Amino acid sequence: MDEALTEPEIVILGADHMQAAAGIRRVALWQRLPWLADLHTPEEEEQYWRMHLLPNCTILGAAIGIRLVGVIAYGDDWIEQLYVLPDFQGMGIGSLLLDSAKDEMDEIRLWTFQRNIGARAFYERHGFTAEEETDGLDNEEKEPDVLYHWRRLPEPALGLQPSGA
Fold first, then answer.
1. With contact defined as beta carbons under 8 Å apart, do 63 and 9 qualify?
2. Residue-range domains of the chain with CATH
3. pLDDT per residue of the chain (165 residues) written in tens, 0 to 9
């Protein structure tokens, strides 16, 4: 079956998926942002997903067939991780994952690097606004970053006619 023709399925990820989730992050991040320092081994990254993200976040994956091609970790009004394998970007997979988080939260914040122009454009297309830029001294990569924020708009009130009108 041609992966490009198959609709991705959004699935809840568990402990058995953390190595694959960490691997997606690693491939997507380093292919798109090769200038970033590689600070952690694949094993350390998997441990972070397993020991920090899994107990504290909802983690969803986008699967095409049996292949995991995208991942999101979110909770408490934050997106902690959102990555799609480079060969599968531009196919709506990131939007599906983001929409899953937006369905569950009324407000979301997230950080991305200032130089990650693709991610910034993606979030802005999805209604996020830049709220703060930093010099990067507070993140482990020491890379200038930007805080994005999204808030659900209130539902419009129904225009009910008074009775007898």
1. yes
2. 3-151 (3.40.630.30)
3. 454 557 899 999 999 999 999 999 999 999 999 999 899 999 999 999 999 999 999 999 999 999 999 999 999 999 999 999 999 999 999 999 999 999 999 999 999 999 999 999 999 999 999 999 999 999 999 999 999 999 998 877 676 556 555
